[in-house]
Write a structure and sequence with these properties.
Blueprint lengths: L2 E2 L2 E2 L5 E3 L8 H9 L4 E3 L3 E2 H5 L3 H5 L10 E6 L3 H13 L4 E6 L4 H4 L11 H12 L6 E6 L9 H10 L4 E5 L14 H7 L8 E4 L5 H11 L3 E4 L9 H11 L8 H19 L1 H15 L7 H9 L3 H14 L4 H11 L3
Parallel strand pairs: 3-4, 3-11, 4-6, 5-6, 6-7, 7-8, 8-9, 9-10, 10-11
Antiparallel strand pairs: 1-2
């Protein structure tokens, strides 16, 4: 049984990665329904929380059906991170997570996210500030290092454990790689097999098939796997992986009717959470992923991404099984496209 502090996650948990503009409550809902064991929010700026910025505060929304769920924060200032942790603590998630892995320039330039990998002492201070400000278990998500010459994750993992971090998720790329090239899991495996490391180690990066999950589980002995891009438009991926690990066989892919029902649930939850206007707008980025590759889909897609009328959108989604057929080759291509393969 894998545990983060006293939180039981099962024998080999599958985690939903915190993805900006993706891992919001509506998306987390459909992932939870389809097998995700632990989920994290989109990352939240510590400075934004302190300023009471509306967008940052909205990202604190969590719901009981999601549990266990972690709220992820980022920042480069110890005082701000400590205050943000207290704010997060008051919303009563199960875990506080620190983002030391985001590679985007606007975050790194502020000395946050993966930018902290250049200064391990700062990483230690920031993490201590969070641990000292919350009663909740603290986890981190990070990368192998800043670049090929400074892969310091072995040192980072030991020092994070030593100051009280409860689990570490590691993306198998450096910051300079961004999301390009192949993820290198070799160091992730070394950390997991380091006799000094006793906390759970979760691997992340390039997970796009149940076969790969099984192979990495066996080769690198990680405690679980964090899934990101493979779940976009494909929340069934969690259950597909679990079925394959249990039986060695592939779970039948979702039918077009099942895709429609999950897409509708996603839309309904988006409207409930953000209100009808914003819920409709924020859902638009997901339709292509749910229905990628279907021939002659453009007219329907245009309704989905331009209409402001909820009933019209629902009718368009309901019409899909009657007007289209699901091409399994397209379904596979969807996953490859989302994962940049």
């Amino acid at each position: 049984m894998v545990k983060i502090a006293n939180i039981e996650l099962g024998e080999f948990p599958l985690l939903l990665a915190p993805m900006e503009d993706v891992s919001d409550p509506p998306f987390r809902h459909v992932c939870k329904q389809n097998g995700a064991d632990l989920m994290y929010t989109e990352f939240i700026s510590s400075e934004g929380l302190i300023r009471d910025a509306m967008k940052s505060r909205k990202k604190l929304d969590i719901f009981d059906y999601e549990r266990p769920v972690g709220i992820q924060i980022f920042g480069g200032d110890e005082d701000a991170m400590g205050l943000a942790a207290k704010i997060v603590d008051a919303t009563n998630p199960d875990i506080v997570d620190i983002n030391f892995g985001c590679p985007v320039k606007k975050v790194v330039c502020k000395g946050a996210g993966a930018g902290v990998l250049k200064d391990v002492e700062l990483m230690v201070r920031l993490t201590k500030a969070v641990i000292n400000s919350t009663k909740l278990p603290v986890t981190i998500k990070t990368r192998l290092g800043w670049d090929e010459k400074t892969k310091n994750i072995l040192e980072v993992a030991e020092r994070m454990q030593d100051i009280g971090v409860a689990a570490i998720s590691i993306h198998g790329r450096t910051r300079t790689q961004m999301y390009k090239g192949d993820a290198d899991w070799t160091l992730i495996g070394e950390i997991k097999n380091n006799p000094r490391i006793t906390i759970p180690i979760f691997g992340n990066g390039d997970i796009d098939s149940p076969e790969k999950v099984k192979a990495y589980k066996e080769k690198y002995a990680v405690d679980g796997i964090m899934i990101g891009r493979a779940s976009i438009g494909n929340p069934w991926f969690f259950n597909e992986v679990k079925h394959f690990l249990k039986t060695g066989e592939h779970l039948a892919p979702p039918t077009l009717e099942q895709r429609v029902e999950v897409c509708k649930t996603h839309l309904q939850k988006s409207v409930e959470w953000k209100g009808e206007k914003m819920g409709i707008i924020e859902m638009r980025r997901h339709y292509t992923n749910y229905f990628r590759g279907m021939a002659n889909f453009k007219p329907t897609r245009m309704i989905l991404v331009t209409s402001d009328n909820l009933n019209e959108i629902m009718d368009a989604i309901d019409s899909i099984p009657h007007n289209f057929k699901l091409d399994m080759a397209s379904t596979l291509e969807t996953r490859r496209t989302i994962n940049g393969k």
